[in-house]
């Protein structure tokens, strides 16, 4: 919210400390979770292996619905990691929020536009790269910008930017708004004892809703990523 | 509020290092997950898929084989029925034949035995007759010789008959 951002400069590159800390924490949580789930893999799955396989099946399903052919299989890992990372990143701000001296150190990494834009940039770059790799630069250009007809060229070019902005800001907006509202309700609860109890209930409800939103947004982000990749690598 | 908002971030310094940092950390995470979780799990899932496919195939195979076997058994059962009735028929025929053989041979034997017995009886009778004939001849000769040897008085005749009878008894005792 109104917290100041602590910027440190390392090798001349400015870093936002809170983003770094929460991003690292998220990555660590994701890795530990997946690492723990993937111990003692057996042909006949039991317990946590079932959980992991269900997750993998779920993200593979997302990939398959966008890229049905054999090529889709190579995007399974990307979809899985993206989904789990964004899901954990969305939830982590609901579970813990550490502020110190007015600086916020641990929050949802996805409640910062920097993070979501990084991911959106990364996956769209990958999509364009795969398109060029598959059709060559000319084929890629024709396939992406001149179809179904040449007249759509300016709109298609514009679309690449709107894709990027919407992909990034949809996720950022949802999570950021969720956290803003959580903080607002918290401020409301602090004002006096009469509103404390209803505000607490409201906070509880909103937190549950945020969990839901976080899951949906992770799913949407992963789905759209795969759709954008499929648009670039498949002939229309 | 606008300190973190998009372009507002520029006012407090645009932390573009975050961009690099997230890029790097995501790629590292990708690599680690691939090494420790993704590869083994997907490999195992693949293995399971092929195993299940194989199992289904082999189940289909064994089902077919079982069906074939059942069919074969049915055919064999039918065959065995036919064969059994054949065997019974043959046995019946054999029995019939043996029966007639035995009866015939018994009949033959009886006939020969009868013939033999008849022959024996005939022979015996012949022999007896012959013996009697000889006796009578001897007797006649003896009587005749005795008559010729001497004149006979009544006492003598009586003695002669007596002696003859005695001799007859002796002869009979010898025989």
What's the gist of this structure?
Chain A has six helices and four strands; from the N terminus they run ββαααββααα. Chain A is mainly alpha-helical and 236 residues long. In chain A, α2 packs across α6 and α4 runs antiparallel to α5.
Q: What's the structural blueprint in terms of helices and strands?
A:
The complex is a heterodimer of chains A (236) and B (175).
Chain A: E1 7-10, E2 13-16, H1 17-37, H2 48-66, H3 76-95, E3 98-100, E4 103-106, H4 113-145, H5 153-191, H6 196-233
Antiparallel strand pairs in A: 1-2, 3-4
Chain B: H1 17-149, H2 154-174
Terminus-to-terminus distance of chain B = 169 Å
Distance between the termini of chain A: 44 Å
Helix and strand sequence of chain A:
EEHHHEEHHH
Q: Report the uncertain regions of chain B.
A: 1-12
Number of domains of chain B: 1
What fraction, in percent, of the residue positions of chain A are helical?
over 70%
Q: Using the CA coordinates, give the radius of gyration of chain A.
A: 21 Å
Biggest sheet layout of chain B: none
Strand order of the largest sheet of chain A: 1-2
Counting structural domains of chain A, the number is: 1
- Measured as a percent range, the helix fraction of chain B is over 70%
Secondary structure category of chain A: mainly alpha
User: Mean pLDDT across all residues of chain A, rounded?
Assistant: 82
Protein name (chain A): ATP synthase subunit a
Family (chain A): Belongs to the ATPase A chain family.
Subcellular location (chain A): Cell membrane; Membrane
Function (chain A): Key component of the proton channel; it plays a direct role in the translocation of protons across the membrane.
Give structural notes.
Chain A: One of its GO terms (molecular function) is proton-transporting ATP synthase activity, rotational mechanism. Chain A: Key component of the proton channel; it plays a direct role in the translocation of protons across the membrane. Chain A: Belongs to the ATPase A chain family. The complex is a heterodimer of chains A (236) and B (175). Chain A has 236 residues and is mainly alpha-helical. Chain A has one domain (7-233). Chain A has helices at residues 17-37, 48-66, 76-95, 113-145, 153-191, 196-233; strands spanning 7-10, 13-16, 98-100, 103-106. Chain A has a two-stranded antiparallel ribbon with strand order 1-2. In chain A, strands 3-4 form a two-stranded antiparallel sheet. In chain A, helix 5 runs antiparallel to helix 6. The radius of gyration of chain A is 21 Å and the shape is globular. The model of chain A has no long low-confidence stretch (mean pLDDT 82). Chain B has one domain. Chain B contains 2 helices and no strands. Chain B has helices spanning 17-149, 154-174. The longest helix of chain B has 133 residues, at 17-149. The termini of chain B are far apart. Mean pLDDT of chain B is 83; it is low at 1-12. Chains A and B meet through strand 2, helix 1, helix 2, helix 3 and helix 4 of A and helix 1 of B.
């Amino acid at each position: 919210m109104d917290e100041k951002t602590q910027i440190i400069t390392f090798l001349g590159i400015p870093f936002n400390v809170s983003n770094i800390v929460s991003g690292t924490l998220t990555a660590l949580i994701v890795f530990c979770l997946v690492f723990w789930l993937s111990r003692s893999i057996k042909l006949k799955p039991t317990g946590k292996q079932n959980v992991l396989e269900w997750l993998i099946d779920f993200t593979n399903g997302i990939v398959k619905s966008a890229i049905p052919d054999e090529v889709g299989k190579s995007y399974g890992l990307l979809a899985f990691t993206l989904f789990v990372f964004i899901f954990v990143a969305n939830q982590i701000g609901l579970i813990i929020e550490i502020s110190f001296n007015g600086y916020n150190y641990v929050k949802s990494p996805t409640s910062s536009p920097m993070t979501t834009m990084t991911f959106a940039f990364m996956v769209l770059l990958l999509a364009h790269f795969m398109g060029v790799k598959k059709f060559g630069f000319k084929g890629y250009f024709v396939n992406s910008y001149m179809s179904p007809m040449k007249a759509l060229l300016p709109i298609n070019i514009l679309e690449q930017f709107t894709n990027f902005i919407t992909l990034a800001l949809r996720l950022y907006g949802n999570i950021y708004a969720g956290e803003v509202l959580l903080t607002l309700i918290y401020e409301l609860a602090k004002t006096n004892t009469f509103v404390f109890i209803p505000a607490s209930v409201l906070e509880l409800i909103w937190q549950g809703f945020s969990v839901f939103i976080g899951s949906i947004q992770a799913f949407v982000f992963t789905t759209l990523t795969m759709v954008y990749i499929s648009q670039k690598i498949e002939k229309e | 509020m606008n300190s973190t908002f998009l372009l507002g971030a520029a006012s407090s310094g645009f932390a573009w290092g975050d961009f690099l940092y997230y890029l790097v950390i995501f790629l590292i995470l990708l690599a680690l997950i691939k090494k420790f979780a993704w590869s083994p799990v997907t490999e195992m899932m693949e293995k399971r898929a092929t195993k299940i496919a194989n199992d289904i195939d082999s189940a289909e195979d064994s089902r077919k084989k079982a069906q074939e076997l059942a069919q074969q058994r049915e055919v064999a059962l039918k065959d065995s029925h036919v064969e059994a009735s054949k065997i019974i028929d043959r046995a019946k025929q054999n029995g019939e034949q043996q029966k007639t053989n035995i009866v015939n041979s018994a009949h033959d034997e009886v006939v020969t035995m009868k013939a033999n017995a008849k022959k024996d009886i005939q022979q015996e009778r012949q022999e007896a007759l012959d013996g009697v004939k000889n006796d009578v001849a001897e007797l006649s000769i003896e009587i005749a010789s005795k008559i010729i040897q001497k004149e006979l008085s009544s006492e003598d005749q009586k003695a002669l008959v007596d002696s003859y009878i005695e001799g007859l008894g002796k002869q009979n005792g010898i025989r």
